[in-house]
Write a structure and sequence with these properties.
The structure is a homodimer of 616-residue chains.
Chain A lengths: L1 E4 L5 E3 L6 H7 L18 E6 L7 H13 L2 E3 L9 E5 L2 H8 L15 E7 L11 H9 L12 H13 L3 E7 L2 E7 L7 E7 L3 E8 L5 E8 L9 H10 L3 H24 L6 E8 L1 H7 L20 E4 H4 L8 E4 L9 H10 L8 E6 L3 E7 L2 E7 L20 E7 L3 E5 L7 E2 L1 H14 L11 H6 L4 H4 L2 E4 L2 E7 L10 E4 H25 L8 E5 H6 L2 H6 L11 E5 L1 H11 L1 H13 L1 E2 L6 H10 L7
Parallel strand pairs in A: 1-5, 9-12, 12-14, 15-24, 17-26, 18-20, 24-25
Antiparallel strand pairs in A: 1-2, 3-4, 3-5, 6-7, 7-8, 9-10, 10-11, 13-14, 15-16, 16-17, 18-19, 21-22, 22-23
Helix pairs in contact in A: 6-7, 10-17, 10-18, 14-19, 17-18
Chain lengths: 616, 616
C-alpha cells in the first residue's frame, strides 16, 4: 500500500496504522503539525486526489467542517490509508516555509548562515615573513585583505595568541559575516548552532537550529517576564516612563527570559551554549527597544517614532546574552513604531513579498498586525486590540493552557472542549470566538451584540435549555457555558454582556484595520487569493467562527489558512540564510505603514465593524 | 628693529630683550623648543643669513660646537637681535611637522579629524512619514543611507530617545568616521577634543588636542606603571608568561597610567573628559598588545609574531579608558613584532615616506628602532639595546631627571652639568655618551673600550688630574666623575670598566642595526641626506659625542638633527587627520622589517661595532 504526495511525485510505502502525517514525516516530506498532530489545528490539511481513506474523525469535522470534508479536505494527522492514494499537501505555504528547515536539497533559501567555522592548522612562519597571527588566519579563512574595515573582535583577538599556542596551532576559527568572532582550540567545526527568537508581548519562543544541517534541534517558550509590569505594549511604555528604573527592569526581564530559553533548548539538545554563535530576533517595536535597552518613550506618543528601524547587530556579551561572548544578536528590521520585526518575519515566512496573488496576513497576538498586498506593494497596519483574545478583560478569560475552554459548540445545549480534558478553569481566545459565533447563530445575542431580551429569545427560536443558561445578576446579564458543579473551582464559566462588548471592540479594531488596508489598495475581499492567520491564536482559531463574528472577511474556507508562528519562522529563515536577511531588509524598507489613528475613515470603519455580520 | 624668517617672507617687529624664539612664537611662526627654551637641545636651531645678533652663549657652544657657530648656526632660544636680521629655521622637518599643529592655514595635513560634531534641531515628523530617530539624524548629519553597514553604537542608540525628548529636539550628534557615537543635549559643538598618546616602555606621554583648531592644549607624561614588573620589553613578556595574572596586571597598569594622564591634561586645560572622543596610540608592539590585553607570548619567541598588525579601533568603554564611553581608541598599525606603531609614528612625523632624500631615523628609547630609506623603499629594524641609555645596568645610571649628570666636558679636568643645577645623584644617557666620548678623546680608554694601564696613560698624554681620577677597587677599575663630597649622597659618581662595556653593547647593537639597513639598501653613510634622532634621548644627546662613540655614522653635524618625540608627533597627526591615518597604514604595510637575529652578517657587524671609532 503506497501513498503519493503530489509535490514529490514518488510513491511512499505505508505501514499499517500509520497516519498520513506519520508517513510524510518518515519519508522526509514536510507537513506542518503545529498542534502536534492532535487534530486541534488545520495546519496539516491535505486534499485527497485519489484513493480510499479512513472516515473523518470528530476533530476533522470540527476543524474542517462538513463542507471542507465534502470537498476532499482532511487532516493528515487524523487520516489513515485504506488503499493506494494520492494527496496534495495544502497549504503550499507550509510546504515552502518548512522545507527550508529540512535538510533536503529542496530549500528555497539555500543554507547560508552568517556564522561559519573553519578549522585551521596554522603553518609555522619565519621571521623574514612579515605577518601576524590574524593575517595568517585571515589568509586561511579567505577573509578579504585589510582595506580599513575592522575584521576581528577585541575579545577574539585577545584569545588568539594563547589559543594558538596551547592548541599547537590546530584551531577552529569562528566567523560571522566577514568578522573573526572567536578562536577555539582543536576541531570544533561540528558544533555550530543558532537560536531564532520571536519575542511576543506575552510569550517568547526560541528555536534552536543546527546551522550545519538547518535542522531544528529544539524549541522552548516562556512567558515574557515583563508581563509583571503590564500585559500590553502601552502599559509597558507607561511603566518605562513613570518608574525611574522601569526601562532597566523591563530590559533585565526580557534578557532573563531569553537566557532561560537558551538554557532550556541547549540542555534539551545536549549542546554547549558557547557553541551558539547567532541569535535572530523578531518582535514588535516595543519589544525590540526594550530588548536593546532603548527607551520606548517615543513609541507612546505621536508620531510613534522608533529609535531605529534598520537591521541592528549587537555582540551577545554587550547585552548579557549567554551564548558565545562575541556571538551576534541580529535584530531584524522594523517597519514602524507599531509594526515591528514580527510582521517582517510573517511576510518573509509567507513569501508575500515575492508573490503575485493578493494575500492578507493577520497576526493576532497581544497586538494585531495586518499586512495586505503582493510583491508589488505591501501595506501594513497595527491595532492594539489583541488582549481580549488572550483572555484579558474577559470575565473568565485565560490563556490557551490546560483548563481553558478552546472549542464550543452550541446546538440544543452547550458542548465545550477543555484543553487537557480536565474540568474547565476558564475560556481562551479561540473558545471565546467560538462561543460568540455560536451565540449569534443560536439567537442568544443579536447582530449588535446585545443579549436578546426574554420576549425576543422565543421569537428568535432559542432552544429552552439555552434560555435557561441566560442569567441576570443585578444589572449583569450573562450566559453560562459550564455550570459550577462541572468546573475546577466550583464557579460557573460564563460570558457576560460586557465580555461580548470587549470582543466586539477587539474584533472591530482588527476588521477595521483590514478594511483600511483594502481601501488603501482599492481591493475587495473577493480579490484576495488567500487569507493567512499567523500566530498561536490564529492557529487554534476556528476560521468559520472568525468569519461568523466578523473578525476577518468572509472568504471561502479554502482560502483561509492558519500558518502557525510565521513570525518565528521568519526569524529562523533569517538565521539560516544571509539572503533571507537581505529580503527582510527589503520588506522593512518597502512595506508601507498605514497609520490608523490619524484617519477619520478608520473611526467610521471601526464603528461599522463593531457590529456582527448578519447570519448566513 | 625687525627679523625676517626666510620661510615666511615677512618682517616681524622685535621688542627689546626678545629672543628669536619669543619673536617666532608671538608671530605664530613655529619653531620646536623641545627642552622648553633652556638651551639644552638643538631643536630650535636657526641659521643666520643676515644681520647682527648677541654673541653665542655657553649653552650654544656646548650644543652647536664652535664649528657650528662659525657656520652661522645659533639656538633661537639663546639668540637676540642687535639690528635687522634674516634667519632660516632649520631643520625644515620641524617646520613641517609642527606647522600641522598650528592653527595657520599652512598645514601639510588639513585638519580633518575622524571626530565631528553636528548640532541638529530635529524637525517634528508626522505619523505618515515612515522614519525613526536615527534616520532623521542620519539625514541631517549627512551620513550615507543604510546599505547593511551599521552606523550607530548601541549605547549612543540607547540614549537617543531620552536625549531628544529632554532637550526638546535640540541636540548635538557626535560622529566618528561614519558612526554616530554619541548624542548630547543642546549645542556642544565647541567641545571636541582628542588625546594623542605615545606609550613608551618607560614613559607614557599624552597630548591633549583641540580638534576644532588643531591646537595642543596640554601635555602630560607619566612613568609607565608596568615598569614595576620589568624595565624592558622582554622582562614584561616573561612576567606575562610566568605569572598567571601577569597579563592582567600589566594591562591594568597601562590602562591606569593612561587614565591618569587623561585626568591630568583635562584638568590642566579645564575640559571635561566626556568631551574627549578619540585617543590615538603609538607604542612598540609589546606595549600595543598589553594595552589591548593581548598576550605578548608570541612576541617572546621566534618568529616574534604580533597578534595583529593593522590599525585597530576599540571603543573607550571596552577598555575602561575614561573619555566619552564610545569615544574611539585608535591603535596605529605595527610593522613587526619588534617594530611597532611608534616607528610608524616616527616615519609619519618626519615624512620619510614621502621624501626622495635618503634619511636615517634612529629612535632610542628602551628599545632602539631604526628606519632608513626614501619614499620608494623604507627598511626598519629593532635592537633591544636601549636600557643602558636609560641608566639601567650602569653603576650610577639614572633617568634624565633632576640630579642626573647630562653633559660632561673633560679637558684638564672634568666638568659636569647636572639637571636642575643640584648636587649630582647619578648619570643619565646623554651624560654617559658624553663621558665615554670625552674619555676616548682624553685617552683614558682606548678604541677597544679598555681603561688604559698606568704606563699607557702617560704615553697617551692623559693629564695628571685626570689620571688621579682613575681608581682601582680590587679588580674593579673606574673613573670618578664627581667626588663624593660634591654629590647628593656623599658617594662619588663613577664610570666603571663594566659601564663602558655596557655602553659598547648598546651602541654596538644600534650601529650594527644601522649597518644592516645600509647593507640592505646598499647605501654608504655619505649617501644620506639626513640623520634624525628621535625620542627624548635622541633629543638631549650631544650628536658629536654620539658620532665620537660610534653610536651613529659619522655624518657632518649639519646633517644630524634631533627631532624630538617624533613618535608622539605621529600620533598627533593621526588624531588630527584621516589622511595621516591612511598614510600610517601605508607606512606599516610597505616598510620592510629586517630581522637581525637570524642573519650571520648581523653578528659580524655587531662584533665590529662594539669597538669605538679611532679619534679624528
Amino acid at each position: 500500500m503506497t501513498i503519493t504526495f503530489e509535490s514529490e511525485q514518488t510513491a511512499v510505502e505505508v505501514a499499517p496504522e500509520q497516519t498520513v502525517l506519520d508517513v510524510a514525516h518518515s519519508a522526509g516530506v514536510n507537513i506542518i503539525a503545529t498542534c502536534g498532530g492532535r487534530g486541534r489545528c488545520n495546519s496539516c490539511r491535505i486534499k485527497v486526489l485519489a484513493g480510499e481513506f479512513t472516515p473523518p474523525t470528530e476533530q476533522e469535522i470540527t476543524v474542517l467542517g462538513h463542507d471542507g470534508i465534502a470537498r476532499g479536505f482532511r487532516l493528515a494527522c487524523q487520516t489513515k490509508l485504506l488503499n493506494d492514494g494520492l494527496v496534495r499537501i495544502v497549504p503550499p505555504i507550509s510546504e515552502r516555509s518548512f522545507r527550508i528547515l529540512s535538510a533536503t536539497d529542496r530549500q528555497e533559501y539555500s543554507l547560508d548562515p552568517d556564522v561559519r567555522k573553519r578549522r585551521l592548522v596554522l603553518p609555522e612562519t619565519s621571521e623574514e615573513h612579515q605577518s601576524s597571527d590574524f593575517e595568517e588566519i585571515r589568509a586561511l579563512t579567505g577573509l578579504p585583505t585589510y582595506t580599513g574595515k575592522q575584521q576581528v573582535d577585541l575579545s577574539a583577538l585577545q584569545t588568539l595568541p594563547s589559543t594558538i599556542f596551547h592548541a599547537s596551532r590546530d584551531v577552529t576559527a569562528v566567523l560571522w559575516d566577514h568578522h573573526l568572532i572567536g578562536m577555539e582550540a582543536g576541531d570544533t567545526t561540528e558544533q555550530v548552532y543558532g537560536i531564532a527568537f520571536d519575542i511576543g508581548t506575552t510569550t517568547v519562543v526560541g528555536y534552536l537550529i543546527d546551522l550545519r544541517s538547518g535542522k531544528e534541534l529544539g524549541v522552548a517558550s516562556e512567558l515574557n517576564a515583563q508581563a509583571l509590569y503590564g500585559g500590553d505594549v502601552m502599559s509597558r511604555i507607561t511603566f518605562a516612563q513613570q518608574d525611574e528604573t522601569g526601562l532597566h527592569k523591563l530590559h533585565q526581564r526580557i534578557i532573563h527570559t531569553i537566557n532561560r530559553i537558551i538554557e532550556k533548548v541547549c540542555e534539551q539538545a545536549g549542546i554547549d551554549r558557547e557553541h551558539v554563535y547567532e541569535v535572530t530576533i523578531v518582535g514588535n517595536t516595543c519589544m525590540h527597544h526594550l530588548f536593546l535597552n532603548i527607551s520606548p518613550i517615543h513609541l507612546g506618543v505621536a508620531p510613534y517614532l522608533a529609535a531605529i528601524r534598520e537591521r541592528y547587530v549587537v555582540a551577545a556579551e554587550e547585552l548579557g546574552i549567554q551564548i558565545a561572548p562575541r556571538g551576534r544578536i541580529v535584530m531584524l528590521p522594523l517597519i514602524a513604531g507599531f509594526v515591528g520585526a514580527d510582521t517582517v518575519g510573517v511576510v518573509l515566512a509567507t513569501g508575500m513579498h515575492k508573490g503575485s496573488n493578493i494575500t492578507l496576513a493577520v497576526d493576532i497576538g497581544t497586538n494585531g498586525e495586518i499586512v495586505l498586498g503582493t510583491k508589488d506593494r505591501l501595506v501594513a497596519c497595527s491595532t492594539a486590540a489583541g488582549t481580549a483574545f488572550e483572555g484579558a478583560q474577559i470575565t473568565h478569560g485565560m490563556r490557551g493552557a490546560t483548563g481553558a475552554i478552546d472549542r464550543v459548540v452550541i446546538d440544543d445545549d452547550v458542548q465545550c472542549h477543555v484543553i487537557g480534558e480536565v474540568p474547565a478553569l476558564g475560556i481562551c481566545g479561540s473558545g471565546l470566538v467560538d462561543t460568540i459565533a455560536q451565540m449569534l447563530d443560536a439567537g442568544i445575542i443579536n447582530a449588535n451584540g446585545r443579549f436578546r431580551r426574554e420576549h425576543e429569545l422565543e421569537q428568535a427560536g432559542v432552544k429552552p435549555r439555552l434560555r435557561e443558561r441566560i442569567k441576570i445578576d443585578g444589572k449583569k446579564k450573562y450566559f453560562v457555558l459550564v455550570e459550577g458543579r462541572q468546573t475546577d473551582n466550583g464557579e460557573p464559566v460564563v460570558i457576560t454582556q460586557q465580555d461580548v462588548r470587549e470582543l466586539q471592540l477587539a474584533k472591530g479594531a482588527i476588521f477595521a484595520g483590514i478594511t483600511m488596508l483594502m481601501q488603501e489598495l482599492n481591493i475587495h475581499p473577493d480579490d484576495m487569493t488567500e487569507l493567512l492567520l499567523a500566530g498561536a491564536f490564529g492557529n487554534y482559531l476556528d476560521t468559520r467562527s472568525a468569519v461568523r463574528i466578523g473578525l476577518i472577511p468572509a472568504l471561502p474556507p479554502e482560502k483561509i489558512r492558519s500558518v502557525g508562528n510565521a513570525a518565528g519562522l521568519g526569524s529562523q529563515l533569517a538565521l539560516l540564510s544571509g539572503k533571507a536577511k537581505l529580503e527582510a531588509d527589503h520588506i522593512a524598507k518597502t512595506t508601507q505603514h498605514i497609520a490608523l489613528t490619524n484617519r477619520p475613515e478608520f473611526q467610521v470603519a471601526f464603528a461599522e465593524a463593531m457590529a456582527f455580520p448578519e447570519g448566513l
